[in-house]
# Entry
Amino acid sequence: MSWGTELWDQFDSLDKHTQWGIDFLERYAKFVKERIEIEQNYAKQLRNLVKKYCPKRSSKDEEPRFTSCIAFFNILNELNDYAGQREVVAEEMAHRVYGELMRYAHELKTERKMHLQEGRKAQQYLEMCWKQMDNSKKKFERECREAEKAQQSYERLDNDTNATKADVEKAKQQLNLRTHMADENKNEYAAQLQNFNGEQHKHFYVVIPQIYKQLQEMDERRTVKLSECYRGFADSERKVIPIISKCLEGMILAAKSVDERRDSQMVVDSFKSGFEPPGDFPFEDYSQHIYRTISDGTISASKQESGKVDAKTTVGKAKGKLWLFGKKPKPQSPPLTPASLLTSSTSNGSQFLTFSIEPVHYCMNEIKTGKPRIPSFRSLKRGWSGKMGPALEDFSHLPPEQRRKKLQQRIDELNRELQKESDQKDALNKMKDVYEKNPQMGDPGSLQPKLAETMNNMDRLRMEIHKNEAWLSEVEGKAGGRGDRRHSSDINHLVTQGRESPEGSYTDDANQEVRGPSQQHSHHSEFDDEFEDDDPLPAIGHCKAIYPFDGHNEGTLAMKEGEVLYIIEEDKGDGWTRARRQNGEEGYVPTSYIDVTLEKNSKGAVTYI
# Structure
């Protein structure tokens, strides 16, 4: 089946069909372009959505810790990767489908224009041949009519007796001329007719079939190209399906990773203060202050009974507990007797009589007009009292448990930084050795500033680690001894009597504040446990300084070259040794700067910071 033989007379139809094919190709290209824009907009919107809900990590404290949050952020990451695959689909379609379609449409337009021009030229040439043949035919027909007229004129004159001989000869010559011209036009017409028939045969059997064949091949290539683009359109989507499936599997794994038990434990770890719950409130029997006059023997009995009740109330129920915002309020003063109602103490210890006629009214006024007690913050002066203030370097503004975790995290970070600096120092030393062995590779002296900087960084990090470890040991030591201190403090609270003032003084009179010996002891016991000086550590050896050390950092000990020091704590692997001078000054010195000699009887001794 060929267009040249089957559609030899449908040039205009083929012109319209090929134009429709190119228009359809461009229409499909427009469809692909809009699909690309949809994919790009979809990917952009997904990325904006991910960006909107991703956390802005300005600090490490805001990093997600709960498994549900981590799973959600993993889903956001997978969704971001999914958006990237949509962009890949758009890029693949733009390059493989849309770009190819636009390039091929341009080629088709050029090829179609060339073939149609060749077909029009062939038609124009055939029309020209037909016109020449038609002109020669008309001329031959005209000459034949003129020859017939000349023959009729000659015959009429030849039969006319009145015609002269000259007229007859003239008519005969005219006949011969017309006949000759008719014969010439006849030959020309025959030649033109023969030429036209040949060109027409060539046109319809050679030229036009060849042009139509080229148009047919062009249209078939267009169809094949559309088929390839259809396949490429689907392949662009199919190629990313495995990666998209992995993204979806990642979302499913993120959903499975949610652990409610772990999240609950994280809540405990995040907000646990390390304090114990408050104890029970003691029973405060205000009825003991009432002056009962029942009988002569009742007063003494009431004294004994009230004394028993007070002992049970204060000692039996008042177990010392550490409150969240201070210590438990002090027990009330012992029951008022008639003597206590009639006498009061002044600030200098003298007594004066006060007559009370309505003891019940007096006690009720004490209940109604008594000011609320202010909880003591002394025992938490390094804890909750600084919570609203700026963060301190030793995290003393945090509760004990949170402070311990923060210090441990900082120590781990400093150890990692120290390890990096150590690795860098080893690399620089190796490079320096290579330079010393092969001077043409570099100058060993050029690495000395970097080595010195690295050593200084290591010294600084070790000092930071020691400082934080000291704080950590302080926190852990306090956590271990908190129960004993709290018990002794509660005993002091039980011994003290009277009302607690905001400054911590106790008195029987609301307008007077006198601090007794037991109260002062209770006040100082809260600080003595924190600031007690440890006994000097025993020397476990001695050392000699090989190099001088400035000791500018806090906690370090400066030394001169050749100076002999006592060793009171060995190097624990961090490059620092604790030493002491003869005058008692202690500090840390770099282990690599000294020559250490340990005593034989001190091997394996346990040292403390």
